[in-house]
Amino acid sequence: MANGVWHEGLQQVLALDQADLGLPEHLQHLAPDVIEALLRPIAGRDRTLLQCVESQAGRVCKAELNGVQSRFMYLRKHRSPDQQVRLRAIHLPTTHTVTAEENDQREAMKEFVARTCDTAGLHYSVGASTRSRTAKPDVTVTSAGGVGLGCEAQYSNASPDLVLRRSRTHAGAGLTANWITDNDTFHLVDRANWMLTRPATWREISNAGDLPLMGGYRVLAEWNCTAAAERPCPDGLVKTGCGRVHLEWDTPRRLDDEGTGWTGWRGNRRAVTVGRALVGAATGAVVPLFIPSRRDARTGAYMWVPAKDRDTWAEYRPTEGAPADNSEPSEEIHFSGKEADLSCRFGEEDRTLGTALPRRGLVQLSITVDRPTSPAPTSTARSARPSRPVAPYIARPRPGECEIGTPRCGQAARLYAGGWRCDTHRP
Fold first, then answer.
1. Highest-confidence range of 110-119, 226-235, 345-354, by mean pLDDT?
2. For residues 163 and 18, what is the distance between their CA atoms, to the nearest angstrom?
């Protein structure tokens, strides 16, 4: 990560901590346009446009020595420990070529989805364009009372721009994008609806009757927060409970087989599977849900949930569709005015100084509500009920005073079996 990078087109070192990028005076007016162009996805420009300044000077670039990164670079926004967003140059990885194993896994997953649809009697097409000719999912599953699915089997890490662009294309064709993968660190997570499986070879996928669903699917846990509840109180009142109702989107592997509340990490005996979730989505038993982030409504958590759980959640929180513009949020760039460092910083400790951003999709997956109370009876209903006689109020003597007589004696007394009695009236 560096604050200086060589621009092959301008034949100039760009100082990324300066608002004018350190350009000559007659080119300084181009700085905003240069920044905008370089922040676009790498697929939209020449991959060799930006280079490590040390490599361009004819010295050894440390990134090339590890065999994974290249001497070519790209720009990204980096949040420093002072929470300021700055421009930094990052070494590009070597061009990824889809391996034979990844390609076989993708083909096996496409066959698995098709096999699942065949068994359930759902209409589907493999690798075919939609009617609008705008999208070509790996497998298109036609809606049978639920949502139409544009399933994408992804076993290499697609760029965020690719995931967002293809998901929007599917949405334009009336389909809900559904990315299926075995790696929860890929950029597709929480950029569209997704399903996570265990890592499996193409042969295991081909031979599987169904596959456990490890992520991208949640169920709603709802419980009364009392001292007897097995689930702990999210508000910290563990011993007594808060007396209110908690709702929390939980993983099915923690919720299944739960009696009165908490199962910890004992796991699940009735695993939710990819096949059942796919069929449920197409038929309406499973629905897509987007919960916006607390920081930016354009980001959030995408998940598949049971329809009945979505309806329960909707009683307390509005459920909205995913934002039409779900592109990456932009932030103002801060320029410190420092000169560009002309050495390669790859692999050095200072590249870890950035404050980690919260994981995309940081949302409130639990809420605390009051149990809805029954409506108060109307005057007609109250009048129909038989009235209960109210006993007249009788003043009780204070402890230690004799209660015999009318008016009461009131003298100092002791407590006997018949009540408080003084020496004169004792039994």
1. 110-119
2. 32
Q: Do residues 140 and 125 touch, judged by C-beta distance below 8 A? A: yes
Asked if the model's pLDDT at residue 149 lies above 60, the reply is yes
Q: How confident is the model at residue 421 (pLDDT cuts 50, 70, 90)?
A: confident
Distance CA 196, CA 185 (A): 11
Question: How many angstroms separate the CA atoms of 379 and 356, rounded?
Answer: 61
The average pLDDT across 215-228 equals 86
| Residue 3 confidence (pLDDT) | 85
Predicted local confidence at residue 271, as pLDDT:
64
Does the pLDDT value for residue 338 go beyond 80? yes
Which residues are paired to 223 by β-bridges?
246
Query: 384 — phi, psi (to 5°)?
Result: -75, -20
397: left (phi over 0), alpha (psi -120 to 50) or beta: beta
Higher pLDDT, 82 or 396: 82
The pLDDT, as a whole number, for residue 362 is 55
Task: Give, to the nearest 10 degrees, the angle between helix 100-120 and helix 274-283.
Answer: 50
As beta bridge partners, residue 86 has: 78
Pairing assessment for the beta strands 149-153 and 176-181 based on DSSP bridges: parallel
Q: CA 222 to CA 142: how far, in whole Å? A: 33
Burial classification of residue 29, based on how many CB atoms lie within 10 Å of its CB (0-12 exposed, 13-18 middle, 19 or more buried): exposed
pTM, rounded to two decimals: 0.62
Distance CA 4, CA 148 (A): 47
CA distance 148 to 170: 10
> For the residues 240-246, what does the mean pLDDT come to?
84
| CB-count exposure of residue 84 (10 Å: 0-12, 13-18, 19+) | middle
Residue located via tokens 């007594």: 240
Report whether pLDDT(20) > 60.
yes
pLDDT above 90 as % of the chain: 27
- Per-residue pLDDT at 388: 37
